[in-house]
Amino acid sequence: MDDAAAAKIAEEALLQTHINYQIDRATSIRQAYELMSLRNHDVILSDLRLPDAVGLVAIAKIRSKCDTVPLIILSGSENEQFYVETLAKGADDCICRENLTPTNLLRCINQNIERVRQKRENIELMDAVDRQRQRLEEQASLLQEKNVRLASLCESARSFVNNVSHEFRTPLCVIKQYSGMLSRGTIGEMAGPQKRLLEVIEDRVDGLNSLVDDMLDVSRLESGMLAASRSRCSISEIIRKELIPLKHRGRVRSIDIIAECPNGLPEVFCDSEKVGRILVNLIVNAIKVSPPNELIRVSVSRNDPRQELDIRVSDNGPGIDEEMKGKLGRQFVRGPSSILCSEKSFGLGLSITKELVNLNLGSLKIESQVGIGSSFSFTVPYANPKAILNRYFERLMRHTNQSETKIAVLRASIESANEEQRVDDVERFLSYSLRARDIVIPIQPNVWLLVLNIVADEMPRFRQRFEVSLSEVNRNRPQGDLPAIDLQQMGLFDRVTEVDDIEFCLSKLLLSSGAPGERREGTKQYV
Fold first, then answer.
1. Domain 387-512, what fold?
2. Structural domain spans, the chain
3. Using one digit for the tens of pLDDT, what is the confidence trace for 338-347?
């Protein structure tokens, strides 16, 4: 500051403050440069009457050497235009000589030091954000490369599993058929020890077939192709059908299997083939861990409040501790090995079982005590439209993004239900025309409720796909065309906020169709 009077006023003002300032004074730009090189200053106070820089040029010269320290210009006037020009050239503030009191000067200095500090912090934060964004972009690019490679490896693994599984099928079928012929004495009578060995061969073939089924199901599940063709079913009939070969497998190991199915059980709504697979997996698992001369019990009980049947498979094996119970159901996790059980597996059975139960709108439960045995149970909903719809929504909420999709509710019907085979064919076609996340609910023998989980503008594409599929089925159907299917849209709903409206559509359809309820096994009458 070249103006001695102004410099004295500023120094006296600073000395009267409660802060102990260390003051350096320069009378020219050149001298100021020298002082700046010797010490880091917190603030620069300057007038615009320097011998080597007059007016606004002084600001530019000071800023050329020090652009981060607050620069306050001491002015002789309060002209607003001059103040604007001063700030435009790079000054942080201006203070008039007439207002140069200790209080005003201290406030001006503190305000500008704080402003510059915040500005510096903002710059540092922005630099940190830029560096972080750059790192994230690099990591995202690297992750994308890894994902592409992983997808390629998964596709290769899936293709390998499919090919190997299908290649296994033919020799396994041949071995099964030939061993069965030998065991039955088709080619010639076999002695007792020979029959025993053939039974062991058949048992091992059945085990390999189950493994192939598991591997194929894993492949379909991971590719999103594992779907269900649900319909009204008799759980007693499913159990009876599956227990015929399973009892034979149990006898090979001196294990008996019994089923306890009460009379008058309600029909259930499920994919009978996949519920059969659930039973096979659970019973085969029980056979593996059970010692000889033990009993495996399959029991069925009603849960009317929950509108479901509980199917339970109990064994007297070694049991499972709490830690292992939490791990079971994951892929490639096997239960504890038993001294009495030498059979190995890939740990896929329970993982697939869990997914198949979920696909059939049920839940899987494990109860076990070490040294006593285990009980695996799963549920299947009654063939009651309201119970089915509630289970469907529960599953939908757990497995899909709630913000992106809508629920379309449609009524499908045919004029006549006189021919049961034609009605069954229509129901199979409706299931075939939907995707894994959709559902067909039978209301009457000739009326169905279709619930589709779709994006808002997908409905026209569904109708087009439906008509194309129907045309293809009719063209290739030896018995002639399917009955004309009347497809009516009842509404398009947001599944989070309008579940009650969807249930109202169902109630309306039930009332207009005769309001069916539960139907007993072995009957055609609704209760």
1. Alpha-Beta Plaits (3.30.70)
2. 4-100, 159-381, 387-512
3. 433 434 444 5
